[in-house]
Amino acid sequence: MKSAAVVNFAPEKGSVEIREIPMPTFGDDDILLEVANVGVCGSDLHQWTSDHSWPVNYPVVLGHEFGGHIVEFGKAVVGWKAGDRVVSETAAVIDANNPMCRTGLYNLDPTRKGFGYGVNGAMTRYVRVPARCLHRVPDNLAFEQACLTEPCCVAFNSVAQNTRLKPGDRVIVLGPGTIGILCAAVAKLCGADVAIVGLEADKHRLATAKQYGCDVIIGDATSWARERDGLGADCIIDAAGVSATLKIALELVRPNGQITKVGWGPQPIGFSLDPLVQKNVTLQGSFSHNWPTWERVIALLATGKLDVKPIIGGVWPITEWHEAFEKMHKGEVIKSVLKPV
After folding, report:
1. What is the pTM of this model?
2. pLDDT tens digits for 34-64?
């Protein structure tokens, strides 16, 4: 049996198309998952436009934000059965003997390969997934929302785990994309006062961020940052997809404050980091997530404490991937979701 798949087939710009691929084979420790929904990530767009900064194993099926039902599983898999509702983590290939994996931080394994760039992802009907990647999805959580567990985990890991937030902290989020808005939502859950910053072209995205109780700012956030005592914001979450926003973060953060950088930007920064030293600022990178984060985020989604419905701009069949990609790329929607056919 063959299924339609969204395939990134070469490094050149625009090298994405629908191809028919066979049902994947799977090993003793794997499951075969029938995909219900798969989210379109900014990294999928970056591979489509060829401005990404990570290695890709071409050709590869895109898609790493996904959930669905178990169809079959290998003989070594225990604890799962056909029909179980699940979502999958992204660390498709890891080295179990790597020191990072041994401490549970397999997301930081340097040899890690993820779905959608290292191995075939989920923008198709069936995907092979290691059983260790699976998490159960409660019946009350629709797959259109459950498939966005992964970006929620990126936000939760960066804000609730890698950033030392306290209730009442003033937090500025740079970049009102999916990750930026979810970071702002998690910061609100942590009890912070939150502003999210974008450009004039981001007005409708900022309107969505406002639904999460955030202040929204177009352009310069200096006055908001200095509103309390004139020194700056306690924390800046840099969720923009360019390197230059780190300079803005250094200007807005207070002395002895913190900056968490979660957005990727391949460009050279081209400015001095002296303010980092002068202000005694903590600069924290944040990448991916691991098992405890997924369990916590699924609980937040299932109870409605973290609601992703406001960011979903529509659901498209996989054969209409181009429209879904274009609408995200142009900023017409925050998050596109695909459904296999």
Report:
1. 0.96
2. 999 999 999 999 999 998 889 999 999 999 9
Do residues 216 and 207 lie in contact, with contact meaning Cβ atoms separated by under 8 Å? yes
- CB within 8 Å of 284: residues ≥ 6 apart: 162, 163, 258, 259, 260, 261
Kindly report the CATH number assigned to the domain that includes residue 91.
3.90.180.10
Q: Are 9 and 143 part of one and the same domain? A: yes
| Overall domain count for the chain | 2
Task: Kindly state whether residue 293 falls inside one of the protein's structural domains.
Answer: no
The CA distance from 117 to 121, in Å, is 8
341: pLDDT confidence band, cut at 50, 70 and 90?
confident
CA distance 222 to 23: 53
User: CB under 8 Å to 59, separation ≥6 — which residues?
Assistant: 7, 8, 9, 10, 19
Instruction: Provide the residue type at 230 as one letter.
Output: G
Structural domain containing residue 219? 154-285
